[in-house]
Structure formats: C-alpha cells, structure tokens
Amino acid sequence: MIEIKNLSKSFGSHHVIRDISLTINDKEVVALIGPSGTGKTTLLRCINFLTCGDKGEISMGGLTVDCRKHSRYNLLNLRRKSAMVFQNYNLFQNKTALQNITEGLIYAKGLKKPEAEKRACVELEKVGLADRAYDYPHRLSGGQQQRVAIARAMALDPEVILFDEPTSALDPEKVGEVLLAIKRVAREGITMIIVTHELDFARNVASRILFMDEGIILEDGAPDEVFQTPKNERTKRFMQNYNNDFIYNI
Amino acid sequence: MAAFDVRFFIDTFLIALTGIPVTLILSVIPFLIAIPLGIGIAFLRLKKVIGASQLFAVYSSFALGTPLIIQIYLCYYVLPKALAEFVKFLGIGIDIYAIDPIFYALLVFTFNTTASMTETFRSALNAVDQGQHEAGLAVGLSGFRSFSRIVMPQVFLIALPNMATTAVNLMKGTSLAFVMAVHDVMAKARIEGIYSYKNIESYLGAFIIFFILCFVTERLFKLLESRLNAPWRKGNQAKGGEVEVAL
C-alpha cells in the first residue's frame, strides 16, 4: 500500500502540487491523467523522491518518509521498494540490456551475478527481447529500449512501478508494443501508477483513474465513472474533447 | 656564423635527455593530482554550492586567464618570501629557502592544470544526461554507486580527448620550469646553449625531445581511448551476439 499524506511542492512561486493526500492499494493500476503541466510527473517523482516534496509524507510497504526530514538511508530504502519507467527510457548507456537489469539486482538487491542474469533473462523474455540481451541501448529502437526499461523495473520486484509518460517519446508505430508490455505487467498484479496521455490505454488497463489539474486531484474513480460521468466541471471539459469524435472536412 | 656543430648537438642532446625524468615528474604528478581535484571542483560548481562555486569560478579565471610564466614567477618569488615570514612569525626554525624549487614547480603546475581539468570535467559532467543518475537512483543504487558505476564511466570517455589536450599542454608548459632553477630537459639544453653560444644545436635537441614526449603522450591517450572505447558508444560497432544468451 502506498500512502501520500498532505504532499505539497512548489517550484519558486509556482505551486505544482497542492496538499495532495492519496492512498493506493496493492495491485491497483492507477492512471494519472490530466492536462500538461499540472504536476502529474512531479507527483510521480515525489513518490520515489527523485523530486523532494516541500512537505508531506510518503509511506510505502511499511516505511514512512517525511519530505522535510529524511535520511539518506530512508531514501535508499524507499527507492528500493519502487521502480520507475521514464519518458525517455534512461537506460544506462554504458551497459547492455542485460546489464541494465542486473545492475539493480546485484547492487540494490544483493543477488549474485549468475542469479541476477538468470532473472534478467526471464524478464527480457517476457518483453520479447531475449535475443537483444547483449545489445547496448543505442542499438535498440525507442520501443525496444522502453521494453528493456520495463523489464528492468519488473526484475526489481517492487511494491510499485511508476510509469512517467512511458510512450510520449515514441513514434505511433512503437507505442503499441510498449503499451502491450505494460498491459502484461498489469496482469501480473503489480501495483502501478501510470502518468499517461494515452486515454484509451488508461481506460483499458487501469482499475482506477485520477484526473489532475493545477496541482489538485479533481477526480478519482473507476475508469467508466471518470470517463463517462465525471463530476467535476474541469474534468467534464477535458473528457468532452476526448469523447468527441472529430470530423474533418477538407 | 659557425656551421651546425653535429658533435655538439649530439652531446647536448644526450645531456638534455637526462632532464626527461624531471620533465616527466613535473608532468605526471600535477596531472594525477589534478584529476580528482578537477572532478571534485567541477562537481561543486555544477551543484552550485554557495561560496565554493564562486570561489572556484574566480580561481578558474585566474588560473586560465593569466600567462603561465607570470604564475610561475609569482609562485617562485612571492611564495617563499611569504612562507619565510610566516615561519618566522610562528617561530619555527625551518629554512624555507632550502626547499627544493621543484616543489614550487609542482605546486604551480598543479594549480594551473587543476583549472583546466575542472573545465574538462564540468563540460563532460554536463554532457551526461541527468536521467542516467536518476535511473540509477530509481533502481535502488546509492548516490555514490549510481555516480561511480553509471555516470562516471560515461564522463571519463567524454572527457578523455580534453584530458589528452590538457596533458600535452602541461608537458609543454613544464619547459618554463627552468626559470625556477628546476633542471628539466629545457633547462639542461639552455645551460649548454648559453655557455657555448651554440643556441641552435641546444634548443633543437630540446625541441626534438619535447616533440617526441608530446607525441607519445598523445598516442598513449589515443590508445587508452580505443581500449576504453566501449561498444556502447554511438557509432561504434557493437559486439552483439558474441555471448550466448543463457536461459
């Protein structure tokens, strides 16, 4: 279970997150949607402290970390309970696909190298890239890199996987393969928080949708609820654009 | 003008050769000290540590924005005097003027090279995507591990060509150490030239030795680069499929 309590974050005078409290249960797949620049990514990054909130608390798997006073040790442990998939993949450029996965297994989880490699191969197999295990990231396409990143996150066996716009940097052709990989992760029953602009995907894969605007969570509910009968005015407007089928006359 | 004295040229060349150890000491030691110092200072400047960042910015512009020869003169003439006054003030009976001038030479070359190295690493650290470090943290590596295993290998490879330039510049710069009465290649050749009035023969010898030293240094760095040259760099042929996938 992940608990966010009274989280706030501002960059200068710009309040990105305004006092958000949120509980996410085990095995929930949460899609975080909303307009650009409303703090979705910041919220995600606050959960594993890549961005440190100004105030508030994050709890995960029995560990509570206060934004205002946290030790290096607590941060490390919190990060070891989570994994993240980034918008621009962020695979370790100096490591092969396989090493990208074993790195965390060996140095964070303390696995022996052969064990770690075995585990990594299993995960690569799952995302369909077993044959690219010894390729370096620059030899892989964007979609393949992101699938390796997903395998890297999965291998860590985390309490939660945080997805930060995992398909935004991909061309439309490659989006499908990555979404498919994420869907597979969802089926394994791992808690996930996905920041995405792929609304169809969000609706399809998520068990819960959060709609965020101006640093506040405006809507929180099951996909059909949020997409079809939103309560908040702002959400209604946002969904209108999505639900409308545009007809272009040329 | 007398004809080129081949015999004398060979003799002074051999004498100048005996200065190579000193030239190497003056090049290698400051270079090796400058690497960790440069990384440290570059880090402080990029992190914008208040105080340190500004201090080292001023340091860099002093060290890189003034002629080396002036730095040498200042270090050689001002520092001993200041130290002597200081020692006198403390009342310790150390004779500052008995210190081998090579220490002042090492000091000034380290001072200068560290500044170049700082700039080298500053740009190399900037060139590595911040996301690499974040990804390291996100998979649960400690800050230090992520930095040393993920970021630094990439930084070093980017910094290597500039490090080679710095090394060659340093080596060339050590030829100015003769003004501090340090007997390197240049000083030995110069002494022979002055006493014999055969300047061409003596300086030609020093010229050749420095050319060879710098050439070898450059080659060594090239070699190092190709050795380190990981298949992970863009444009390099990756050696994929060399190892069987162990499933």
Description:
The complex is a heterodimer of chains A (250) and B (247). Chain A contains nine helices and ten strands. Chain A has 250 residues and is an alpha/beta fold. Chain A starts with a strand and ends in a 7-residue tail after the last helix. Chain B has a single domain (6-234), classed as MetI-like (MetI-like fold). The longest helix of chain B has 31 residues, at 143-173. In chain B, helix 1 packs antiparallel against helix 8. In chain B, 75% of the residues lie in helices and 0% in strands. Chain B is flat. Residues 237-247 of chain B have low confidence and may be disordered. Classes of the chains: A alpha/beta (250), B mainly alpha (247).
Count the strands of chain B?
A: 0
Tally of helical runs of chain A: 9
Largest interface by Cβ-Cβ < 8 Å: A-B, 40 and 32 residues
Report Rg of chain A. Answer: 18 Å
Briefly note the CATH topology name of chain B.
Answer: MetI-like fold
- CATH architecture identity of chain B: Orthogonal Bundle
User: How many domains of chain B?
Assistant: 1
Tell me about the biggest sheet of chain B? none
Overall mean pLDDT of chain B stands at: 88
Residues in helices of chain B, as a percent range: over 70%
Q: Quick one: overall form of chain B?
A: flat
Name the beta content range of chain B: under 5%
Structural class of chain B: mainly alpha
Distance between the termini of chain B: 81 Å
Q: Mean pLDDT across all residues of chain A, rounded?
A: 91
